[in-house]
Specification:
Elements lengths: L7 E5 L5 H4 L11 H11 L2 E4 L9 H9 L6 E5 L9 E2 L16 E2 L6 H14 L1 H5 L3 E7 L8 H12 L6 E4 L9 H13 L3 E6 L19 E6 L4 H4 L6 H4 L6 H15 L4 E6 L6 H16 L1
Helix pairs in contact: 10-11
Length: 301
């Protein structure tokens, strides 16, 4: 019997992080946004757009990303904060929606009329259509906050959110440990995601916090399996007064990567595509680990 071919794409959760730009990883002549994306795409087949969490993406940028990358390059895109129950800065909203926030500087979804949230979903969907039409859109990453528990209304919300983006595939990452705290919880969560063909995002991250999810990997969608590596900077994970980048200041050892590679290879046998993303995007640590992991997986494939 022929060996099943496994499609595994490896990349990082950003290509424009300031500490990466300052690290010297990019060639000296890659001084423009176009040149940097072009160089990144020559090294990896996959990237995650993280900026879309902080502000809605634009159709213009999506079209430029299509033009500046090879035919088979893939973008995963992180859902805008208000789409995942997180707060957003009002200044990050499109100008025609800011009046809906009144005098507030920061808003939660509950502060806005449901019709405004629907508009946000529609604007997000429309902005990414160039990527989708070009076959370069992988999945929309819904990373939910710590207070997003496995309550019935939250399960309903996930399904409602997916229904608002009918053209796109949805991947779900939890940051509340009760979704996966025990084997029973894991079974319930994974079965429920499988029932609705939603990708479970496996994570490797610091443990011992309310936001900690155990490093479980599972294919809950036939289309896509996904694992994100956040590192193990336990000391800074919840430390106040540090930058987001500093939380992810962690370089995986070769030993750690070798332990993970067979698990990822096995996971890839359970879905059409498997994405592996390194979110330890402090300086060049994420790209170094991604390159090493890609090499390990190539040896297995």
């Amino acid at each position: 019997m022929a060996k099943k071919k496994r499609e595994i794409l490896v990349g990082t959760s950003s290509w424009t992080d300031k500490t990466l730009l300052a690290s010297g990883w990019y060639p000296k002549d890659a001084k423009t946004a176009e040149a940097r994306l072009g160089y990144y795409a020559s090294q990896f087949p996959l990237v995650e757009v993280d900026s879309s969490y902080y502000a809605l993406p634009s159709e213009k940028n999506a079209a430029l990303w299509v033009e500046r990358t090879p035919a088979h390059f893939t973008f995963n895109v992180k859902a805008f904060s208000l789409m995942t129950q997180h707060p957003a800065q009002v200044r990050a909203l499109p100008k025609d929606l800011r009046d809906a926030a009144g005098e507030k500087r920061t808003v939660y979804p509950r502060d806005l009329d449901p019709a405004v949230i629907d508009q946000i979903f529609e604007m997000f969907r429309g902005a990414l259509m160039p990527l989708h039409s070009a076959g370069k859109l992988g999945t929309i990453l819904f990373q939910f906050p710590e207070w997003f528990t496995p309550a019935p209304q939250n399960k309903d919300y996930i399904l409602e959110a997916a229904a608002k983006l009918p053209d796109y595939h949805i991947a779900v990452e939890f940051r509340q440990r009760t979704w996966m705290e025990t084997e029973e919880h894991q079974r319930w969560t994974l079965d429920w995601l499988s029932e609705h063909d939603l990708t479970y995002v496996g994570v490797d991250m610091p443990q011992g916090f309310p936001s900690s999810i155990p490093p479980v990997v599972a294919a809950t969608s036939k289309e896509l399996a996904l694992v994100r590596f956040h590192g193990h900077n336990d000391e800074n994970w919840k430390k106040k007064g540090i930058s987001v980048a500093e939380r992810f200041d962690y370089l995986y050892s070769k030993k750690e990567l070798k332990e993970w590679a067979p698990r990822l290879f096995e996971l890839a046998g359970e879905a059409k595509r498997t994405h592996v993303l390194f979110n330890n995007c402090y300086q060049d640590k994420g790209v170094r680990n991604a390159a090493d992991m890609a090499s390990l997986l190539d040896d297995l494939i």
